[in-house]
Design goal:
428 residues; alpha/beta; binds pyridoxal-5'-phosphate; globular; 14 helices
Length: 428
């Protein structure tokens, strides 16, 4: 029986007019086989496809939906803002409120510039780091994704887990010649790079908890090491917290791990489901941006009241509730349940978690970097993904994506997920 005839029709139509039928590649299900379903409604932790099937959603629009979908506070804020006009291109009070709130929650951020996506935030932060230090070289890590700006699209995780640099056609080698890619969690590689490029490194950019090749954690002392070696070499430490910001704690991964970066990038959660990005840091660095300084950065829709209202509503709701404690409890329950389920089924799985982010790799070995992640069994993940989908549970359609919990998930949702996963794992 075909459960998704309407989705199939729409996908056939989409393929005619949109390359691959999707507006962002991982959505196409290429990593797991089959076809994507089309959704026309979402509420709380659930989404419904155009055929009326319901799914318990662990993607949460890839991170923004930390309060679940269509949270009433956000919907109301967006409705109110829209009635007063969607964009002015003139300063508005809401952007001041959101900027102030970001600075209050993330102490390393003294000033912040708002933009429209995570990609814009990281691209601009890199430009700023180069302009501020008057150096060209950037160090990034294999498997860390920082959006799709040219100079950062090298060994960039899930969307492009193939080898060879640069990762994408259309990026001239000259555009990435000032980007060095190193393995994550390997201090010696970083020491060697600084030794080889004395006085040339503008900064290191990283996801403090990499979540774009599945999910793996910084080894104890690693983030501290990066903080020290960048400071010692006059280079900036740039935390890309587009995924982790306002999710792993109010102050993001930097609060959770007690590290003070020079610059930070945000997106996802701070937009409340609308397109928002932000980058910020020490005032002395941020003041190098135009109109105060020589580093150019701009945006027609940057700071628009609709997006600001959604972001503010999301952050204020997070502040007003015990969201982070709740997410931690849900995460711990899922982790314990999934580990037990994998053990009972005799399936080697590394279930890794940090707060409300998680990933189960089908491998017996530890996963601390992207090469270890790539050792996982992708065919097995494909079967697991489709098994859970048949149970009405939606994970990201790739073995190299994190899962996302929201405050709309309940302990009963977790129990149901663990039970379903137990059945699927046993049948693998
Ligand atoms: C999603 C993501 C980005 C890109 O953000 P977009 O809004 O998709 O442009 C950058 N960095 C990290 C860590 C991300 O997870």
């Amino acid at each position: 029986m075909n459960l998704r005839p309407e989705s199939e029709k729409l996908f056939a139509e989409a393929l005619k007019y949109i390359p691959g039928g999707v507006n962002s590649p991982v959505r196409a299900f290429r990593a797991v086989g089959g076809q994507p379903f089309f959704v026309n409604r979402a509420q709380g932790a659930r989404v419904w496809d155009v055929d009326g099937n319901e799914y318990l959603d662990y993607v949460g629009t890839w991170g923004p939906a930390i309060l679940g979908h269509a949270h009433p506070r956000i919907i109301e804020a967006v409705r109110t803002a829209a009635m007063a006009g969607t964009s002015f291109g003139i300063p508005n009070p809401l952007e001041v409120r959101l900027a102030k709130l970001i600075c209050a929650w993330v102490p390393s951020v003294q000033k912040v510039r708002l933009c429209n996506s995570g990609t814009e935030a990281t691209m601009s932060a890199i430009r700023l780091a180069r302009g501020f230090t008057r150096r060209d070289l950037i160090i990034k890590f294999d498997g860390c994704y920082h959006g799709h700006a040219d100079s950062l699209l090298v060994k960039a995780g899930s969307g492009a887990l193939t080898f060879g640099a640069p990762d994408s056609a259309g990026v001239p080698a000259a555009f990435t010649q000032h980007t060095r890619v190193l393995p994550f969690n390997d201090p010696e590689a970083v020491k060697a790079a600084f030794a080889a490029h004395k006085g040339q490194v503008a900064g290191i950019i990283l996801e403090p908890v990499p979540g774009n090749a599945g999910l793996y954690l910084p080894q104890p002392g690693y983030l501290e090491f990066l903080r020290e070696i960048t400071a010692a070499n006059g280079a900036l430490l740039i935390f890309d917290e587009v995924m982790t910001g306002f999710r792993l704690a109010r102050g993001g991964a930097q609060e959770r791990f007690g590290i003070t970066p020079d610059l930070s990038c945000f997106g996802k959660v701070i937009g409340g489901g609308l397109p928002v990005g932000a980058f910020g840091g020490r005032a002395e660095i941020m003041d190098h941006l135009a109109p105060l300084g020589p580093v150019y950065q701009a945006g027609t829709l940057s700071g628009n009241p609709l997006a600001m209202a959604a972001g503010l509503a999301a952050l204020e709701e997070l502040a007003a509730s015990d969201a982070y404690a709740k997410l931690e409890q849900l995460g711990a329950a899922l982790e314990a349940g999934m580990r037990a389920a994998a053990r009972a089924a005799g399936v080697p799985m590394q279930f890794q978690r940090c707060g409300s982010l998680f990933c189960g790799y089908f491998t017996a070995g530890p996963v601390r970097n992207v090469s270890e992640a790539l050792a996982s069994d992708r065919a097995r993940f494909g079967k697991y993904f489709h098994g859970l989908l048949a149970e009405g549970i939606y994970l990201a359609p790739s073995p190299f994506e994190a899962g996302f919990l929201s405050t709309a998930h309940t302990p009963a949702d977790i129990e149901r997920t663990v039970a379903a996963a137990g059945r699927v794992l046993a049948a693998l």
